[in-house]
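Quick sanity check, GntR family transcriptional regulator:
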Amino acid sequence: MDSGSGSGSMSDRAVSEIRQRVIHGDLAPGASFSEADIAQRLQMSKAPVREALAVLRRLGWVEVIPRSGYRVPPVTLRGMQDLFELRLWLEPEAAALAARHGARRPEQIAALQEFCTREEEGSGEDPAAWLTDHYRAHRRIAVLSGNAELERVLDEALLKMERYHALDVIDSAAGSGGPESTHRRLVEAIAAGDSAAARDLATLHVREARDRAVAAVLDSEALRAVDLTSLGQPSGLPDAASQLRSA
């Protein structure tokens, strides 16, 4: 086992590896574990793992179970909606800034254009590969914004979205398309330096993705089997019978 002293490099590696295990379900939603469990899995000493878990707790990737260890947060519709809401605040501005500053980073623009070409040629046949490519493209736009704090926050949101795709909560390849795809039009707006169009297209793209995701979740077989009466009555709302009696 590594005898790491809790240095930044080892704890950074632990953060990355634990997060990837959460994204891909190796640490499943609701799973509990201890610091020692993770140290053994990663073949690291406890010090960098302890530091990593403290970071991941602050970022919402793990939860503390008092006197017991840690737990992976559940995957919920509310959590997914919150992430889309955050993306709706951040991505349009990132796209607008990318259009303003993109000319300084032609290699990033070229990489985005290559992504669009791969998408249009049907590279989405491998959902896992398409998913990685898709989120990498969105991160490139954040990089092009030139705002390091915006890039950092958006990167976290996009990584958490990957968790929903990797667990098949959302169809991974949904939305990949032809030459008139929103991705292509968004990249063209950024390349042209059109901040207004880039902002509008990023808003449209995130809204389309949100609507597809919510529809996919609501159409899932698991939800079809839920007994709605078991959910109870929303607090503060009178039941139908009492409303009739008081009419």
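Posting the structure with no commentary besides this: Residues 81 and 193 are 30 Å apart (CA to CA).
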